Fold this sequence. Notes:
The protein is α/β, with parallel strands linked by helices. The chain has helices at 6-13, 55-60, 86-98, 114-125, 143-148, 169-177, 192-195, 198-205, 207-210, 227-233, 284-297, 302-309, 339-353, 372-385, 398-407, 420-425, 427-430, 448-457; strands spanning 4-5, 16-18, 24-25, 27-29, 39-42, 65-68, 80-82, 105-109, 131-133, 157-161, 181-184, 217-221, 238-242, 249-256, 261-268, 271-280, 320-323, 329-333, 358-363, 390-394, 413-417, 436-440.
Amino acid sequence: MIAVTLDDVAKAIGGVLSGERERPVTGIAIDSRTVQPDQLFFAIPGERTDGHYYVRMSAERGAAGAVVARPVDAPEGFPLLYVADTIWALGCLARWYRGQFDIPVVGITGSAGKTTTKEMTAAALRGRHCVLKSPQNLNTEIGLPLALSQLEPHHTVAVLEMAMRGRGQIDWLTAIARPTIGVITNIGWAHLELLGSRDNIALAKSEILYRLPPDGVAVLNADDDYFEFCRRQAPCPVLTFGWRCPAAVRASKVQLDGEGRAVCVVRYGRERAHLHVPVPGQHHLSNALAALAVAVALGVPLKEAAISLQQMEAVDQRMQVHRTPKQVTVLDDTYNANPASVKAALHTLEHLANGSRRVVVLGDMLELGEQAPQLHREVGREVARTGAQMLIAVGEMADEVTQGASESGNPPACLVYPDSRSAAHDVEQWLKPGDVVLVKGSRALQMELIVKAIFEDC
Length: 458
């Protein structure tokens, strides 16, 4: 973060400042344990604790001051900025700070593939740009401002991920980041419990488009069911990507290699390039095409962008292929899960196994509301349709998954566990050398514990 003063911050967030006004601020923090000297501490209330209890600790670690919503315990003379809502103030500061930079900003949202698309986009741009990308999953009303605070004068483009749980949240993130390019990867079933229907999910995701400038670009998936709806929301030119339907950035001659990674030819106008997607799963081809569309929108030649994209580093817990010392192949996709991403992962497993025994370990898919039982049964049917020999279902919806599998004409052997810890305890009993196993589930299920156990025991 470029140095600003506490007075600058007070004006940006509309706060009342007590204490030294010209003290420099060189960063922001929300965790008192990680505060660095001259960072500004935001006292954020949380589910388990409240940052207002740790203002004194932040001061002792050298914080420049603290943003608070009520009186707190703090050393005498320690600068305090009083606001009505510290989370809102954090967003206001990030919005002001983003305004200090006249650079392209790419905002990426969608029901699935956001993080992978962010990583692919940053990789595709890296040959010609100094890229700031959202670290890890800093994609919420708290995470996005933290990501923006890392902007420095040497950055020439920012690539930011935007997540949401309900209406209005993407709009607020867009107001903070002010993207010049908005990407929607797809409209799926994630957050159905909170939003009620895919139509409402499409409305919420398309909020990223409303604030795009007239000279901005909306990058949209021509293969998606809601493409026409999203296209109508865009107040600026639209650049399409896809491989099933006609698109400006389009793939042809699509095949999968031995690791399940898509290989194809990509075209944009008269440009063409060979692309070998660095992540297993045919569905990640769409994410790669979205990244290439952003690159060409920013003037990067298609062939150059494709070469750079192929050098992307793997993203933890997202379609990572590992082999254990005892020759069990693990497809680790444990970061999160929704119906579309589970089905895509199952088809990747089908290709990757290539005759080996297929084992599927699935945790609950959360936030699906009243349709959760039906959607879990459908996933179970897909497990059977794709030829898995064994299904291990984990969580409250495990019986629904196994019921769906048993309804199919080719039911696998099924086991049910209440949680990932109990399943992890038994991994050695189900797996043998040569097996190929997919492990996937929603974040709260902690399915990575099962992956860890496989490596330790198999």
